[in-house]
Fold Lysosomal membrane ascorbate-dependent ferrireductase CYB561A3.
Amino acid sequence: MRSIVSFYICYLLCLGLGLACVVCVSYWNHRWRGGFAWDGTALQFNWHPVLMVTGLIVLYGNGAVLYRVPLTWGQNKLPWKLLHATLMLLALVLSIVGLCAVFDFHNAKNTPNLYSLHSWIGIAATALFAIQWVVGMAGFLLPCSPISLRKLLKPVHVWLGGSILWLSIAACISGINEKLFFVLKGNGNGTQSYANLPAEAVLGNSLGVLIVAFGLVVLKILSTLNWQRPESRPEDMAYAPLLQEENE
Amino acid sequence: MRSIVSFYICYLLCLGLGLACVVCVSYWNHRWRGGFAWDGTALQFNWHPVLMVTGLIVLYGNGAVLYRVPLTWGQNKLPWKLLHATLMLLALVLSIVGLCAVFDFHNAKNTPNLYSLHSWIGIAATALFAIQWVVGMAGFLLPCSPISLRKLLKPVHVWLGGSILWLSIAACISGINEKLFFVLKGNGNGTQSYANLPAEAVLGNSLGVLIVAFGLVVLKILSTLNWQRPESRPEDMAYAPLLQEENE
């Protein structure tokens, strides 16, 4: 009982911090960066942070902790698997549209793509996410996939799932940091330097802190054994590994 | 047996990638950034990446996986606890000296400290590491600390331990990215722009990739239940939780 209460406190924190991240990144780009468009200008670029934070961090993190919600622990796991896959697909689509926003913007300005470390880490996180989604779909949702394969896949899926999240966080932190150095140069025409911490810098840095806090909560939920779906807990698996019809 | 072989493959990878990170960050600063000094100039700054990568990433990661090495699984855990604490202390000291390098450099140039998101994440990682070390020392090494406190502390220590590592990685990625944008401006006096991916940019980006690969391996080792010290595994604890003399 105490364990369920502390789970729900963490889960509410996860929902609240996720919402705060989306509001913060949207407000930043709306208020300080001129808003949104899809026309190859900087206004198209502005979709990039919003969609990456919303898709690759917030929706992804919420999709990852879904099986930890005790409401989903009924006999029939299938509807929750479908919801998990759907949330992750939505997260992946938003991330890919977010990448298109920045590629289009670069191409319109004849700026090369994928040279910075930020872009290398970001593209690696998205590519791993796409692979994870396809392999997860084939391994855990196709009825023809054998139990032995599912058992083999599961620890890799769980480890890679957490890893994609912290990789995405590293990509976001480096991206926000880079963007703030780009736009806050203090070049005399009204903009202040990043080093003076004007309001936009404080907002951008706070977005980074919110993302990190969200990641800490999600990875805490994922790593707490007591909060795992009972059939997946090692102490339960130890008693009936061979009878387990669906060990994943 | 198969599990031990795969552990040692991962562990060798962890040692090899850690060494590669240290060589790469040292070579970058020696070959492309003019080498090292402690004089308030950019040569003093060069200690910052070297010491942070060596302390906060490589030594820290190796200290974290120590209990997973089967060699350390003997009856007497105390010598390994002392080694774990010593490695972590060394990692903490290197990180603090690495911070002093950049603070001194900023102060000598009258540049403000701690304004960028990189610095916020980096200082948070180091502060959490210092707190984790002090609380870990008091909770797990002082003989007067009761078993009940150790049981309570352990999951927090393990979760925070992994979190500090990925936070440090996010700090390093954003720092390397920022540094490469600072120094590769393509301003005509012989330096090429980051966007053209000159040799220094490829080396810096590769350092980032090596750090991420190191983090993936360390967090894989930490998250694999089969590789935990037997007394700490949930399936073993389930049988004798009350007889366990030292459940940490």
User: Anything to note?
Assistant: Chain B touches chain A through 48 residues (CB under 8 Å).
